[in-house]
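Reviewer 2 asked us to include a model.

Predict the structure of this chain.
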Amino acid sequence: MQDETGTPLTSSPQSTPAPAPEDRQGRSRLFALLIGVGVVTLVLDQGSKVWALRALTPGEPRDLLGPLLRLNLIRNPGAAFSLGDSVTWLLTLVALGIVVWVGRAATRVGHRAWAATLGTLLGGAVGNLIDRILRAPGFGRGHVVDFIDYFGLFIGNVADIAIVVAAVAGAILALRGIPLEGVTHGRHEAPADTTETDDV
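Predicted model (C-alpha cells):
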C-alpha cells in the first residue's frame, strides 16, 4: 500500500540536462581549432605546390639530402607509389569521403588532440581534392602535384605528409583509449534505490 496519498509508486525518469554554456563554448573552441589547423595545412599544401610549379622542372630533380631526399616535380594521377593511375576518379571519391567523414566527426569532437588531428586530416584531404577537381586533365580526374622524393621510392607533397601524420596521431589516441568525444564531465549515475520495503 501507499504510505501517502498522491505519492507515485515509481520515480519519474530523470530528464537529460541541457549542455552547460561552458560546454558549448568548449566545443566551439575545439571546432575553431580543427578548422584553424585545417586551413593552415591547406595553405601550406597549396602554397608549396604553387612554389614547386614555378621553381622546379619535371625531370630535373634537386638534391636536399643527397639521394635520400630530393625535390622532384611530377603530376601524379594515382596515389602513393603511383598506385591507381587508371582510377583517378575513385581516388577523388575517397578524398571526398574523408572530407565528409571529418565534417561529421567535427560535430562530436570533445578533445583538443582529436581536434588538431582531424584538422590536419581535413587540410590534407582537401589539398589533394583541390588538385583532383581543378587541375588538368579535367574535373575529378586532375593530377596531383607531387614534388618531395623520398629515397627514390615515391614522391609526395605536404598534403600526403599531413594525412600520414593524422593517421599516426589518430592511432596513438585510439591506443591510449582517448575517445573522439573526449571525457564527458557532469554525468552522474542515478543512485541505487536502497529503500527496503516491508513484505508485511
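Residues 63-175 form one domain. Strands lie at 62-63, 69-76, 144-150, 154-156. We have added this to the supplementary material.
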